[in-house]
Amino acid sequence: MKQAIVARADLGMGEGKLAAQVAHASLQAYEEADGAAQREWKGDGQKKIVLRADSEADLFEINEQADVEGLPHALIRDAGHTQLDPGTATAVAVGPASDRAVDAVTGDLALY
Amino acid sequence: MKQAIVARADLGMGEGKLAAQVAHASLQAYEEADGAAQREWKGDGQKKIVLRADSEADLFEINEQADVEGLPHALIRDAGHTQLDPGTATAVAVGPASDRAVDAVTGDLALY
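Structure tokens for the assembled complex are given below, as produced in the milestone run.
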């Protein structure tokens, strides 16, 4: 079981900003998972990996693919109070789900 | 309502590693909160701020203070598979709770 969080590297987000966006996505996708997947993932050490995408289009594609595959997922748009324009898509989380299912959607992306 | 996640800046964690530790702490403290606090925070846009600490001792102190104040909190130790020694304390999350209560514990820390 794992969760992959894909964040945009092309926005020039600061480290703290990036971390907050990743945490938003992680929590929101977690809440989309059913109770059994939540428990299994937590029992497994709630493995999370943070991956990079280089465009908004890439995020949308990952989000769409996770949706088609029926995996828990969440796309985060920034409220735009600080570094970004309001509504900018910043991160998408996929899972918790089986490693195989998550890899099928995010497997060819590089670590952030 | 907000949640503050305090991460160590003295460990030289990479950006993705930092984001994963912050997400661990965020989710774990969220699960410690009661249902009313969870709902109120989410209705409020689940505000998260990421702050910096410069030592393990600082993290322990924040964790202890949150405990004394009765706030949801979670201290994360890294499993040590990659960049860090096993058991290294990396981040602590405080809240979701009222802004005032969170600020009483983390208010004098700088943004990460």
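The domain at 2-106 of chain B is CATH 3.40.1490.10 (Bit1). The radius of gyration of chain B is 13 Å. Further analysis is deferred to the final report.
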